[in-house]
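Translate structure to sequence.
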């Protein structure tokens, strides 16, 4: 099946690459032309031009692609500048030609010598400058032809024209040399930090009493703020008449205690009784007053007229959930509200059991939302439990994060970095292709030239993989469209060596 797909793909790309008419001869750039490929953060430039000669007009066939998606740039203006040491500038500009992605400015140099060559793309309110360094402007056409770089045929090169690249999904990204650590794909549960959450339950069985407003979900509260009260219900064996009788008895006892205290005070003043008897009488009076006050509060709470038992916020934060209803009756221990600070989070990474035993020192966690890495500044490891939950068959690695990019209760995907970091050359995982049992990458050595290189796989770190082999840092490897490059390698005649100019 694969043998049928590649020729069909080559034929399709050939039609795409040659559908613009006005073909340039295959040897145009080989017979005295200069070819250059240059990148900025925004654009890729692939340009061809003949050596510069004083007072001779030279056309730049400049192919411009967006680095973000490798699509042809179809609007804007390209300005070519020769900047001389004395500050004088020879310049020319052009808008996009009839071939989308190709700009053809015509530059005439006004003097011979060394000048800096810059191609400046302007479009969409932004500017991208390709500084090609110092170039020579020759005094005669003969001198320019003599200085033209010789063409050397390289049998290892795969020709894949820009016009074909622009017609398909295509992307190339640089290999990088740096420290990487092995990563493990994990599921991440977002929770509130333990000290950032509190539950308010009913301390007694009773009826909820609130002020003018009822605390509701989303309301901000502060630690120590009273949110409501619970008026206690009658206990077993109690009724209203018994409570009223208790109040009456307490009043009678208080009156008796007051009279006894007054009598003892008179006797002590007459030195007819010791001071100790007066102290005992006053203590009994205070006790009777306290019993009366307690009986009255119990009766007032039952009728809703007293303060009841207060419900106080133990921490500052927001009410995350509330089942509080004014006048509702509930049992002691019923959860009424949950308060928390949703900006103080724990991210619980669940490591599969098969990888938990060999888990080394934790380096960090990348959180992925809709396929994109979420920047979480200040994320820090809290604990590695080292315990495999028998229910989930995973081990928990916990990170603390302060922010609002994630919400408690959310579940996302992540990549856990573990083990010691090591220096290695790495490429995007998608760049490594297995062909006939061999791992290869396709390297974009210039705008339209590619090479197939053998590599060996190493550790995977997030979306990148360490590789060894015939590859250097900074070289760009194909991450999308490798099958099309392979088709160009297996059927070179289908693509030819020219393109629409």
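Result:
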């Amino acid at each position: 099946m694969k043998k049928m797909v590649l020729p069909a793909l080559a034929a399709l790309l050939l039609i795409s690459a040659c559908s613009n008419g006005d073909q340039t001869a295959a040897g145009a750039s080989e017979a005295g032309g200069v070819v250059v490929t240059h990148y900025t953060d925004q654009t890729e430039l692939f340009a061809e031009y003949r050596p510069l000669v004083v007072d001779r007009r030279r056309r730049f066939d400049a192919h411009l692609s967006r680095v973000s998606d490798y699509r042809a740039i179809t609007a804007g203006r390209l300005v070519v500048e020769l900047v001389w040491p004395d500050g004088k500038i020879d310049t020319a500009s052009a808008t996009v030609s009839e071939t989308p992605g190709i700009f053809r400015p015509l530059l005439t140099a006004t003097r011979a010598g060394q000048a800096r060559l810059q191609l400046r793309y302007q479009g969409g309110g932004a500017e991208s400058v390709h500084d090609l360094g110092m170039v020579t402007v020759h005094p005669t056409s003969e001198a320019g032809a003599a200085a033209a770089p010789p063409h050397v045929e390289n049998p290892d090169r795969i020709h894949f024209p820009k016009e074909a690249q622009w017609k398909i999904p295509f992307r190339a990204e640089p290999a990088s040399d740096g420290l990487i650590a092995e990563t493990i794909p994990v599921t991440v549960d977002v929770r509130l930090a333990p000290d950032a959450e509190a539950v308010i339950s009913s301390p007694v069985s009773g009826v909820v009493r609130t002020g003018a407003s009822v605390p509701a979900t989303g309301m901000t509260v502060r630690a120590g703020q009273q949110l409501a009260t619970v008026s206690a219900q009658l206990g077993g064996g109690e009724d209203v008449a018994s409570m009223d009788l208790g109040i009456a008895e307490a009043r009678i006892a208080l009156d008796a205690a007051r009279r006894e205290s007054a009598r003892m005070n008179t006797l002590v003043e007459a030195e007819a009784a010791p001071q100790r008897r007066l102290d005992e009488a006053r203590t009994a009076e205070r006790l009777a007053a306290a019993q009366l006050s307690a009986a009255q509060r119990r009766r007032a709470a039952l009728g809703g007229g007293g303060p009841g038992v207060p419900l106080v916020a133990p921490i500052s934060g927001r009410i995350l959930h509330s089942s509080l209803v004014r006048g509702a009756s509930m049992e002691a221990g019923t959860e009424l509200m949950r308060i928390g600070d949703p900006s103080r989070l724990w991210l619980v990474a669940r490591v599969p059991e098969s990888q938990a035993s060999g888990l080394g020192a934790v380096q960090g966690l990348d959180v992925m939302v809709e396929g994109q890495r979420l920047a979480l500044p200040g994320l820090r490891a809290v604990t590695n439990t080292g315990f495999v939950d028998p229910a989930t068959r995973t081990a928990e690695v916990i990170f603390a994060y302060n922010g609002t990019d994630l919400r408690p209760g959310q579940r996302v995907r992540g990549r856990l970095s573990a083990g010691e970091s090591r220096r290695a050359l790495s490429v995007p995982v998608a760049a490594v292709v297995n062909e006939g049992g061999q791992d290869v990458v396709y390297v974009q050595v210039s705008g339209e030239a590619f090479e197939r290189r053998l590599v060996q796989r190493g550790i995977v770190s997030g979306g990148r993989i360490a590789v060894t082999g015939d590859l250097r840092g900074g070289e760009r490897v194909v991450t999308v469209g490798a099958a099309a490059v392979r088709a160009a390698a297996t059927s070179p005649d289908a693509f030819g060596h020219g393109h629409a100019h």
